[in-house]
Amino acid sequence: MNDASAGTMVIDGGVTAPPGFRAAGVHCGLRRARKDLALLVSDVPAAVAGVFTMNKAQAAPILVDRVQLRTGAPCSAVVVNSGNANACTGERGLNDAWTMVRTVASALGVPAEQVLVSSTGVIGQYLPMDRVLEGIPAAVAALDRANARDAAEAIMTTDTCLKEYAVRVTIGGQQITIGAMAKGSGMIAPNMATMLAFITTDLAIDQALLTPALKHVTERSFNRISVDGDMSTNDMAIVMANGVAGNAPIVSAGDARYIEFRDALEHVMIVLAKMIARDGEGATKLIEVVVRGAASEEAATAAARSVANSNLVKTAIHGCDANWGRVLAALGYSGIEFNPDDVEIALNGVPVILRNYEIVLDEELAKEALSRDEVVIDISLGDGAHEVYFWTCDLTKEYIHINASYRS
Question: What share of the chain is helix, strand, coil (3-state, %, to 5)?
Answer without folding.
Answer: 35, 30, 35
